[in-house]
Protein 1
Amino acid sequence: MSLNNNLKKILIIDFGSQFTQLIARRIRELGIFSVIVNHKKANNLNIFNNNIRGIILSGGPLNVYDSNKFKFNRKILSLNIPILGICFGHQIISKELGGKVKKSKYREFGLAQVKKVGNSQLIKNFFDKKNTNNVWMSHSDQVFKLPKDFKVIASSKNSKFTIVEHHKKRFYGVQFHPEVTHTNKGKILLKNFLFSICKIKKNWSAKHQKLKLIKDVKNYIGNNKVICALSGGVDSSVVAQLLSKAIGKKLICIFVNTGLLRKNEAKQVVDTFKKKLKINLIYVNAEKEFIKRLTNVSNPEKKRKIIGNLFIEIFERYAKKIKNVKFLAQGTLYPDLIESKSVTGSQTSKIKSHHNVGGLPKKMKLKLVEPLRFLFKDEVRKLGLELNLSKNIVFRHPFPGPGLAIRIPGVITSQKIKILKEADYYFINELKKNNLYNKIWQAYAALLPVKTVGVMGDNRTYEYICLLRAITSEDGMTADFFNFKKDFMQTISNKIVNNIKGINRVVYDVTSKPPSTIELE
Ligand code: XMP
């Protein structure tokens, strides 16, 4: 399904920078649609249709002379479209047009001061009164000879050609990263590129997306039926609500209660989607089936596989009962599609087999509808609000597909699940009560498979340890533990131990990711 093809856009060519996704996000925050393509795909000129109003060449770990590792499509430079090269992108423009790049005498990583030495539309309002600004650098090569007709706009102590331009061609190069927040007023520089140089008009907001996606989905689906696996998480909730607005009762959602959800969650999903939003919802209570298949299983990967497979089995079982279904809706997001990590050819080793309600079987022979496939998570949240979903759903912490099963290391029993649901409930409520829930990216309680001795009243206890985890993060790829005040920790520890039979000790996880992961298994 090719939504958004006819929107005016900025094309970002990715050379493997860790910041490429940030470039796209900043541009979208400025109200312009942007897409990322891997540099290998940029050799196909078909992608340069009339709707591209500007091109950004990203940074990357490559060296401009390393032609074994990449081939630059020179035709990009003769399309008469404005180009902004960032870091490696800046170096490649210079090299291709006759300039020279070489290893810097000093590598520049971190903050650097740049000084204005020329004028350009690109730097309007970018410099302070003393004509300086602090920017974020991350490079070891640099341009040391500019191509013909380029002029210097700004320099730093270590790189003379920090901002350059070819006015007539509308080519710009910056050695630093305007997309990272450490670069002061980096967004202003990007804004100048978009609006003063590319002359593109705002076309990207939650409202635009809502109207456009509803229209596109309607056209794409016609009179057919769509099924959707609803988990109650943000992504599948937004997909369901969007489709419901677009095709009404032709959407059928299937919600599988695995018994591994948070306390009250199943009821909340049914209340919200079936009762309040009047969406066609099939509720499947599969608690017993899941616990049966998980009996005596303690290996984390086995647990994940069993849960993923059973989920699919049940979903298919119910989906088959609905006649004439042509489409399957999934909450795939943009970061899942971007192929930026393969520039150096390295494969990251498999840490965990993620089970996602989105990852449904291909063999079902249904056509996919993935209306969120061009959106980042924060955009999905804004779209959710625009679609009138409650803040409660839209700003929920992420919850893993295998649910509480991976928060009970070792063997799972109904009793352990019951204890954990209560502990998690107390923890999350306490966070909400103290206005901490929205400051934390994800928080949960886990039940460790260890019993320890305690004393309550005059009696000895021998019960489980509850582990609490709360992290801050941008995207779940890296994370840091949240620094609670002692009072909070004392209160929550007391509440859990005093109210939940089965737990007599509470510990807090203070590891970051890496070296740990967010979940325990
Ligand atoms: P880790 O534990 O890998 O978690 O650091 C990163 C983020 O992913 C979530 N997570 C999952 N989400 N299916 C999901 O949909 C899964 O199988 C799964 N495993 C982990 C985790 O909660 C965190 O937000």
Protein 2
Amino acid sequence: MRSMLRSLLTCAASLLFLLPLKAEDGSRLWLRQEGGANGSATLPSANRRLLPTLRIAADELRQAWRGAPVRLLLEKNDALAPDGFRIRPTASGVTISSATPAGVLYGAYRLLALQAMETSLTGELTESPAYDLRILNHWDNLDRTVERGYAGRSLWDWEELTDSMATDNPSSVTYQRYVAYARANASIGINGTVLNNVNASPQILTRAYLHGVKRLADIFRPYGLRVYLSVNFASPMALGELSTADPLDEDVRHWWKAKADEIYRLIPDFGGFLVKANSEGQPGPCDFGRTHAEGANMLADALAPHRGTVMWRAFVYSPTDADRAKQAYLEFQPLDGQFRPNVIIQVKNGPIDFQPREPYSPLFGAMPRTPLMAELQVTQEYLGHANHLAFLAPMWREFFDLVPPASLRAVAGVANIGTDDNWCGHPFAAANWYAFGRLAWNPALGSEAIANEWLRQTFGTDEAFVAPISQLMLESREAVVDYMMPLGLHHIFAWGHHYGPEPWCDIPGARPDWLPPYYHRADSIGIGFDRTRTGSDAVSQYPPALAELYNDPATCPEHYLLWFHHLPWNYAMKSGRTLWDELCRHYDRGVRQTRGFQQTWDAMKPYVDPDRFADVQARLRIQARDATWWRDACLLYFQTFARQPIPYDLERPIHGLDELKQVQLPIGNHECPDEELLNKYR
Ligand code: BDP
């Protein structure tokens, strides 16, 4: 009898296994728990201002929580940061407490995440965010294009938002999308958002747009998400109101104060400004003979009465003879201690520009009297746009592991979000949004833990799926480095769109530091950028022990080798092979890995719904072909200098160099090429 029952059960289970999985469009991200769970959550008594956030927490639990009753509590806890929370099993259920409503909400999402991951709460769980500010930077233009965005158009429908006659309709699709956006951010602890591109249109500060910003701020507020804006430093001039934007000019100072007052009347908890000044053609204080500190401080003074913050970017590099990797440091380090307390300097993780691998920016740790924040790029500008699967947690781990922890006050991520149904284009790109939030909350989290969390919530908890796919995710970024630019090579991308390879790119009259040969320096002797003490001396911007390490090719980690050194093609690597041989092997390995990813994914068909399965499958196919394109382009081009064969045990190139040099993808900086286009051009 028993064995019959068992075989019936096994039979039922395998039938279940054979049932097709319901198609999913990815729009629910990692928040896929069905409602109707009839959970119970009691609210603390709180004043009206605090209630909306607490209500969201209670509603989320009522809809999805299947465990014992939950009590929500506002309670000070000196051991935790303000938004930290405590989840405690008690005799009658579970208590979630925090000093702030946002903290309670984060606790509720954490509890629900544990349920979705089928992880039981064994004892008390306390969490505290490492940084007070965990913020997304949208590079969204007001015409709804997104600079370096590959997932459709900008979420912000400015036409509707700026229409003073329109009233907000909470059941409209756009409104629901705004809510879903805020909710997804809150579920991973993101608490700030800069709505517009750092290459900012001055129009954002006009009354109509500010009104639209207020509407978004009102929707986001209950989710603990504050709104910030990128501003154009010359706005008073560009809007035709003043004849100068000199930060020491009284009228200019007054203009910004009045503008700040106007914004705060609309949005009392407005976060502040993000500024790209004197960088890539943007205006800034240097245009008026003033320093970055004078510019930032002027804006800081305007925001200070309202407790607003200025995030001032250190992404500057003017056309000088200095190595581009040194320029942000040269400009900003001497200004240490000169900024107002409400200024944070926002520094990209690496000294150049979001490359697949960079050493950390030496500014971290070099400005002890100035708060700094890291800018990470979630959107894959330099990692295959929305076509390549590249899980970025391992890249950000490298950064957090090296940078002195005390040098960081906040973390920003350049968003990869758009109007695509699944938000981020590639079904796996949402893992990077998720990972960014989790690392900004807790920079000590391991990549594997994050991949597992995301997979279990996004696809399901079956280990037969989670184990191989989490492994694939963990290897994916290194694979990209291998097939694009291994061993410390960097910025050998095609001009403009940064998608494909163009190490030979030479545009007459262009700034040399916008061209790949500036970075790879390949010649008949060897390859790599000499940043040693006898070269550009960028190594000396690092703390002495690291400078020492990086300066000597024998001790420099091989993954940074050509970042810091120009070495002969026959230089002996740690493996005993020559540099040329090793370079070929890295490219080859990257290509082979993408093929392996295809194999791994195809075997996962039983575990994934048909739509997401097919979508990932198609993109992996593009990635595998792109990897070959990268390998062939780079190796055939470098071979013209190295004058050595590609080792005979490796796969041979399938393209010709001349043919690859003809490839000119007709895409702009907010487009991701599709398969048809790629097939046509490459
Ligand atoms: C580069 C992008 C460019 C951005 C710039 C920035 O190519 O589109 O405007 O950075 O961060 O990575 O300001």
